[in-house]
Amino acid sequence: MQIERENRLLRPSHRFPNAIAIRFMAALALGACLGGGALAAEGGKPPSDKEAIDVNIGGIPGLSQMFYPYVAQQKHFFEKHGIKPNMVNIQTGPGLVVALLGGSSDISMAGPQLLWPPIKKGEPIVVIAGAIKLNYLLVTCGNTPVPHAHEPYPKNLQDLRGRSIGAIGLGTQTMNMAESLARAAGFVPGKDVQLVAVGGPATMVPACKQQKVDFIIAPPPLEELLGTENKDYVVVASATDPKTTGDAFGGLFADTYATTASYLKDHRAQVSGFCAAMVDAQAFSTNPANLAEVAKLYSDYTQIPLDKATSFWPRHEDELLIPVTRTAWSRQAAGVKGDLHTYVPDYDTHVDKVCTEIIEKNAGVK
Question: Which residue from 5, 91, 143, 254 lies 20 to 30 Å from 325 (Cα-Cα)?
Answer without folding.
Answer: 91
